[in-house]
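Quick one:
INPUT:
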């Protein structure tokens, strides 16, 4: 089964709205780029005689540039994916027997289960045969996608942790050997339910692997790699959901603006404003409500790993709205 025909392969099950976040920085406050139409008049180009070949050359050049962009993104996302998986492997190589069975913030999954999940996804993408074992019904499995993900995890529950780690190391090397031959423009279904190029799919893989690395690190009390390249993938994919959270889920009133001040590294500072039609979008408006939190807190909330009661968030402005936002911040189901 090809990646395009399988169920989505991101363990954090991201379902992200399509509005991209503004660029990422801390100082000054991040704003969306100014549209070209509002940038002021520009000097007109000298007129040229039309050419029958101009259109085809322009189309070819545009196609080349898009492909170059996809290729650059593919390489960056592969590098982010490799870095976080290698970080997980290095961490797990230090585990004692007790560490493998520690519970994580993914319901029903231990530290070993987290690695088994990564193994299952990567081997699936390699085209390896799926385990024959079908999982039992578990309280934490709520839908068909969850049952699909549970197969690889359940099949490895009798397997010693070091053996699961060896499987992950082998799967990573085989994936890295194969990825240079993948067409970054090849279209397949991404975990957010939208079709996209393979380069974008690899951003989801980097995000997913990093999210589970952080699950493991919290479980064993070994924080680290919070500012990895894959952390940027997490932000770029999941922060797209903030306008939806503010406007639709938390039902902020038209005219309200909510600022998210996230300190790390990495640091992010963005504002969402709700317009008269009830839609949320990135904005430069002065916030009427502000939520300030550290990066790990944002990650846990956006990934659905905890509730607002489990973390510390400083709020200013409309406290009721802030509470509704914090209660509905999970983008991954």
């Amino acid at each position: 089964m090809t990646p395009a025909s399988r169920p989505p392969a991101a363990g954090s099950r991201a379902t992200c709205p399509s509005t991209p976040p503004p660029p990422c920085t801390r100082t000054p406050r991040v704003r969306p780029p100014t549209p070209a139409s509002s940038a002021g008049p520009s000097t007109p180009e000298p007129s040229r005689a039309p050419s029958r070949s101009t259109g085809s050359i322009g189309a070819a050049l545009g196609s080349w540039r898009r492909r170059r962009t996809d290729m650059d993104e593919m390489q960056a996302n592969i590098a982010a994916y490799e870095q976080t998986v290698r970080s997980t492997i290095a961490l797990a190589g230090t585990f004692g027997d007790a560490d493998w069975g520690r519970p994580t913030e993914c319901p029903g999954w231990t530290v070993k289960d987290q690695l088994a999940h990564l193994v299952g996804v990567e081997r699936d993408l390699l085209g390896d045969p799926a385990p024959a074992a079908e999982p039992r019904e578990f309280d934490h499995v709520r839908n068909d996608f969850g049952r699909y993900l549970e197969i690889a995890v359940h099949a490895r529950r009798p397997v010693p942790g070091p053996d699961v780690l060896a499987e992950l190391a082998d799967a990573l090397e085989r994936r890295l050997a194969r990825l240079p031959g993948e067409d970054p423009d090849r279209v397949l279904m991404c975990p957010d339910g939208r079709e996209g190029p393979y380069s974008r799919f690899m951003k989801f893989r980097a995000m997913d692997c990093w999210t589970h690395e952080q699950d493991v690190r919290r479980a064993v009390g070994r924080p680290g790699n919070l500012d990895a390249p894959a952390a940027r993938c997490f932000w770029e994919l999941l922060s797209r959901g903030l306008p939806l959270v503010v406007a639709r889920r938390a039902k902020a009133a038209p005219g309200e603006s909510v600022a998210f001040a996230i300190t790390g590294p990495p640091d992010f500072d963005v504002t969402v404003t709700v317009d008269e039609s009830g839609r949320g979008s990135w904005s430069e408006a002065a916030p009427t409500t502000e939520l300030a939190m550290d990066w790990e807190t944002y990650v846990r909330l956006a990934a659905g790993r905890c509730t607002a009661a489990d973390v510390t968030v400083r709020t200013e402005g409309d406290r009721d709205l802030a509470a509704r936002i914090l209660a509905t911040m999970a983008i991954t189901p």
